[in-house]
Amino acid sequence: TATAPILAVDYNGLVNGWNAKVAELTGLPVGEAMGMSLVQDLVFEESVERVEKMLHNALRGEEEKNVEMMLKTFGPQKEKEAVILVVNACSSRDFTDNIVGVCFVGQDVTSQKVVMDKFIRIQGDYRSIVQSPNPLIPPIFASDEYACCSEWNAAMEKLTGWSHDEVIGKMLVGEIFGGCCRLKGQDAVTKFTIVLHSAIDGQEIEKFPFAFFDKQGKYVEALLTA
């Protein structure tokens, strides 16, 4: 039995092949899938244009690879919003070499796609928060994996007196905190370094007491959460 989801349609785009794997993923039994229109009955609206184009090309002998296809779910799989396949289209030919349909061999990428979409959405939410001038947004700065400053929002500019452009790309320890924003002695530098690298390694930090001197030399006390 094939572990890859495989489906096929005739020249009119009606299903004439539906293997056990695609039946399992979609919840639609083989017997029910047969004769259904791939484009009208089984594919999500977002995929219709892509699938129609792929079908049209394959029926002319132009086989496309790695095309995303979103299939509807049925019965026991209904709680899943969609099954997302990346498919290769193969033209099906009869014994006289005429194209009589199209076969699609797929790879199920539903879980990866869901995670990726969620990540992109979180990134979008995160960016809109960081870049918001709303006074209710707290001071936020961010580090890349090398402990260089990758974000510095409007509230952070106001708190420190240092602008976004003055600090982006600089080392958070030494150049920014311990440089632009002076810290009280080496002990403060060491503690901040430990907290920063712990956060980069994935540890969450709650309300770490953090103090520095702003651009005007005023002593600022804050609580750091990472």
From TrEMBL:
Instruction: Please name the SUPFAM superfamilies in this protein's record.
Output: PYP-like sensor domain (PAS domain)
Keyword Thylakoid in annotation: no
Question: Which Pfam families does this one have?
Answer: PAS
Under which name does UniProt file this protein?
Phytochrome P
Q: Which residues form the PAS domain?
A: 1-62, 125-177
Q: Which Gene3D superfamilies match?
A: PAS domain (3.30.450.20)
What is the taxonomic lineage of the source species? Eukaryota, Viridiplantae, Streptophyta, Embryophyta, Tracheophyta
| Record key words, sorted | Chromophore, Photoreceptor protein, Receptor, Sensory transduction
Q: Which organism is it from?
A: Pinus pinaster (Maritime pine)
Top-level lineage group? Eukaryota
